[in-house]
């Protein structure tokens, strides 16, 4: 099984970013994170490449998860894309999966994150 070496975390809440990072680092201590909170930096990162996983909040100010997913599918379609959100309902989750998301994890269920990453990798 592959483990993530370098990932993008698209998250606007610093506290959530710290918690997600801590959870992943317990499993994969050598994993590198690029934490991004706005569209321009995200687009530059995916165009540059060199990462093997994208984790993204769904609700970001001025830049939604659907837009992030569309950009990722355009510039790096082979990279798994997992939504981590506190505000994603069943309809949005299904639409996201149809649009190319690999999986989604609710922020109030962090125990699902590591298994979701394992499946995606």
Write out key terms for the chains shown.
121 residues, globular, alpha/beta, 43% helix, single chain
Topology:
Elements: E1 6-10, H1 14-27, E2 32-36, H2 39-48, E3 53-56, H3 65-75, E4 81-85, H4 90-98, E5 103-106, H5 113-120
Parallel strand pairs: 1-2, 1-3, 3-4, 4-5
Helix pairs in contact: 2-3
Describe the structure.
The protein is an alpha/beta fold and 121 residues long. The protein is 43% helix and 19% strand. It is built from five helices and five strands; from the N terminus they run E-H-E-H-E-H-E-H-E-H. It has a five-stranded parallel beta sheet, sandwiched between helices. Helix 2 packs parallel to helix 3. The longest helix is centred in the first third of the chain and has 14 residues. It starts with 5 loop residues before the first strand and ends with a helix.
- What is the share of helical residues? 40-55%
The spatial strand order of the largest sheet comes to 2-1-3-4-5
Strands, total number: 5
Span between N and C termini? 7 Å
* Estimated radius of gyration: 13 Å
N-to-C series of helices and strands: EHEHEHEHEH
Q: Identify the overall geometry.
A: globular
Taken as a percent bin, the fraction of beta residues is 15-25%
What is the average per-residue confidence, as pLDDT, rounded to a whole number?
92
Instruction: Output the number of helix runs.
Output: 5
| Backbone structural class | alpha/beta
What's the story with the biggest beta sheet? 5 strands, parallel
**Low-pLDDT windows of residues:** none
Give me a quick take on this structure:
The protein has 121 residues and is an alpha/beta fold. The chain has helices at residues 14-27, 39-48, 65-75, 90-98, 113-120, and strands at 6-10, 32-36, 53-56, 81-85, 103-106.
